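Example record used in the benchmark description.
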Amino acid sequence: MVKTTRDVTGDLAHVLVCAGTVAEWLETTPAQWKTQIDALVRSVSGVGVRWLSIYPYSGSCSALDRTTICNAILQTFGGQRAGDRVSVVAADGLIVVIDTCADGQERFINAVAQLSSSQAIDEAKLAATLLSPASGEPDLVLILGSPTRVPESLMWELAYSELVFLNVPWLKCDVEHIQMAIGDFQRRDRRFGGVDS
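Model output (structure tokens):
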């Protein structure tokens, strides 16, 4: 994984929230999307977060399902759609990226396919494509679900990220939950895969 200079300073620049199933996302109304994303944006406000990514925890998703979810988000926030993702600029320039792909392997394959066959694929190019528009891996991954299972939607994003598990349903996650996870993150000594000697 590509570590950037922000990684060694301990800053919290990128938060990824992995929450809800594709079926729950399909049932989420535009008003609920607004409430949920507004709460997530408020919860990371003031701590230096520049990117907030939101992935589904699990579920299978057809192209029609992804379009339905993207359209509900676009109807509420505007923004731009690129493939399975919608990007929205929120308060203070925070970039919110909602990725409808619930399969980390599929996301990885799609990223490789986006890269030109005429150029060499290296770790930096692959990371940039997988995480676009964020400039690096998430510092904090908040998983709404059991700590006994890592979601299938996450693969690349876990190598240097700090994980916080909260057993809270998707539409019940609020500012307090996110701020609790951020507080947990801020108390940790990040070793980026290293172990104590």
